[in-house]
Amino acid sequence: SQTIHQWPATLVQPVGSPLSLECTVEGTSNPNLYWYRQAAGRGLQLLFYSVGIGQISSEVPQNLSASRPQDRQFILSSKKLLLSDSGFYLCAWSYGQNTEAFFGQGTRLTVV
Amino acid sequence: GESVGLHLPTLSVQEGDNSIINCAYSNSASDYFIWYKQESGKGPQFIIDIRSNMDKRQGQRVTVLLNKTVKHLSLQIAATQPGDSAVYFCAENKTPGGSYIPTFGRGTSLIVHP
């Protein structure tokens, strides 16, 4: 069966520090991969998605970047965090066009 | 912006009642819709989906209705239980640009009172 791993679960980082969140998927190949951010009381905002290795599409211009160095690995990064980067970050995968997405457990990022 | 929106941010019901959560979508070309349940501090989980060639689909205690004419989606939960308390999101799998990406609305918080 397929599983998705996302870490860390919580993170407190100072303003101006770098960020690296990692997500890996097991049990499938060539998945579609997504990074979402969720602010309190809001829906899920799509940040990046990838349909293959090295293929990254950005939905919202901001202080973040994403990379997919391996088929089942998706990394969210920042060189210098801002206070506004605080939020709940979710990685997800799906297979095909009209199928559901499967989410990781999320990372609660607090920038102080 | 969000192409999928919800009418009510909070819904309070008594245990045992039926719950109805509504959702409006804006992309008339969307052909696949999903309801997710998100418990506090966790990632969303799939509940039920429906394709645009259907207007109703039933699962265990849940029913999704799709009205393409008015671009409206609803989730009905029968005999609501305290464990159903969570935030519910509807999502459509197509952006206005035509990409197949799960696009979420704001969410409805369901509170079940014992």
Question: Helices, strands, pairings?
Answer:
The complex is a heterodimer of chains A (112) and B (114).
Chain A: E1 3-7, E2 10-13, E3 19-26, E4 32-38, E5 44-52, E6 55-58, E7 65-70, E8 73-78, E9 87-94, E10 102-103, E11 107-111
Parallel strand pairs in A: 2-11
Antiparallel strand pairs in A: 1-3, 3-8, 4-5, 4-9, 5-6, 7-8, 9-10, 9-11
Chain B: E1 4-6, E2 10-14, E3 19-25, E4 32-38, E5 45-51, E6 56-58, E7 62-67, E8 72-77, E9 86-92, E10 103-104, E11 108-113
Parallel strand pairs in B: 2-11
Antiparallel strand pairs in B: 1-3, 3-8, 4-5, 4-9, 6-7, 7-8, 9-10, 9-11
Describe this structure in words.
The complex is a heterodimer of chains A (112) and B (114). Chain A is mainly beta. Chain A has a single domain (3-7, 18-95), classed as Immunoglobulin-like, CATH 2.60.40. Chain A has strands at 3-7, 10-13, 19-26, 32-38, 44-52, 55-58, 65-70, 73-78, 87-94, 102-103, 107-111. In chain A, strands 2, 4, 5, 6, 9, 10 and 11 form a 7-stranded mixed beta sheet that branches. Chain A is globular, with a radius of gyration of 13 Å. The model of chain A has no long low-confidence stretch (mean pLDDT 92). With 114 residues, chain B is mainly β. Chain B has one domain (4-113): Immunoglobulin-like (Sandwich). Chain B is 0% helix and 52% strand. In chain B, strands 2, 4, 5, 9, 10 and 11 form a 6-stranded mixed beta sheet that branches. A 5-stranded antiparallel beta sheet of chain B has the order 1-3-8-7-6, with no helix packed on it. In chain B, strand 7 and strand 8 form a beta hairpin. Chain B is globular, with a radius of gyration of 13 Å. The N and C termini of chain B lie far apart (36 Å). Mean pLDDT of chain B is 89; it is low at 1-7. The A-B interface holds A 6, 34, 36, 41-46, 49, 57, 59, 90, 92, 94, 97-98, 100-106, 108 and B 2, 4, 9, 31-32, 34, 41-46, 49, 51, 89, 91, 93, 99-107.
